[in-house]
Design a protein that fits this description.
Blueprint (H helix, E strand, L loop, with lengths): L9 H16 L4 H12 L3 H12 L4 H30 L8 H4 L13 H77 L5 H8 L11
């Protein structure tokens, strides 16, 4: 294989970094990434590894940590997918010798096994659904609080309306009593043929002493 001894270019460093980060995310070894880059750049895997450890790696420390996290997430998703498939395969609704079951078809599994990307996509949709449910729960709690506040407000207004209604009833009764007093005053003045004092009538109605009425 032809090897190169000249300096590394920026484009070669980028290719090396992208390939190694991709292999880290996918759970593959860095050595395998060095071999792939070496074939593309006509360099040895050892030269690629030296370049990575000596120069390129320290410029991508944050990206390396992120790639490791993604690798863990992919691994966890793959384990969950395998676990689900194993549990679903253990549930059978047909006879043990059912050819459909032998082919791996299950009421809980698709016709073909899920790929890792499909599993990750499913988990992402599941997370979005959980976030939407949480948002709906918070909105429901907010509406409940508003409803309780409006109910308390309505109770206060109802009590106030009751007080106003009772007050209105009292005023109406006082008004009717005053009308009756005035009607009686007119009647008495007409019967006596005198200028009857309303004040005297009020004192009479309230149990006061009535002054002698003046005759014309």
């Amino acid at each position: 294989m032809k090897t190169r001894q000249d300096a590394w270019s920026h484009e070669e460093d980028v290719l090396l970094a992208e390939t190694v980060l991709q292999y880290i995310r996918e759970g593959k070894t860095q050595l395998a990434a060095f071999e792939v880059v070496g074939r593309q750049l006509h360099r040895t895997a050892a030269a690629c590894g030296f370049r990575w450890n000596a120069e390129v790696r320290k410029r991508h420390l944050e990206a390396i940590e992120q790639a490791k996290k993604q690798r863990k997430e992919r691994k966890r998703a793959l384990e969950m997918m395998k676990k689900w498939q194993k549990e679903a395969a253990a549930v059978s609704f047909g006879a043990p010798d059912d050819p459909k079951l032998a082919e791996g078809s299950s009421p809980f599994l698709p016709a073909t096994p899920l790929t890792l990307d499909e599993c990750i996509s499913f988990l992402q949709r599941l997370r979005n659904d959980v976030e939407q449910l949480e948002a709906a729960r918070r909105e429901n709690e907010r509406l409940k609080r508003e409803r309780a506040e409006w109910q308390a407000r309505n109770e206060q207004l109802a009590k106030k309306a009751e007080r106003l209604e009772a007050r209105q009833t009292t005023v109406h009764e006082d008004y009717e009593a005053l009308v009756k007093i005035m009607a009686r005053a007119r009647q008495l003045a007409s019967e006596e043929g005198d200028r009857f004092s309303l004040a005297q009538l009020l004192l009479s109605e309230t149990g006061g002493q009535v002054e002698p009425m003046a005759h014309s």
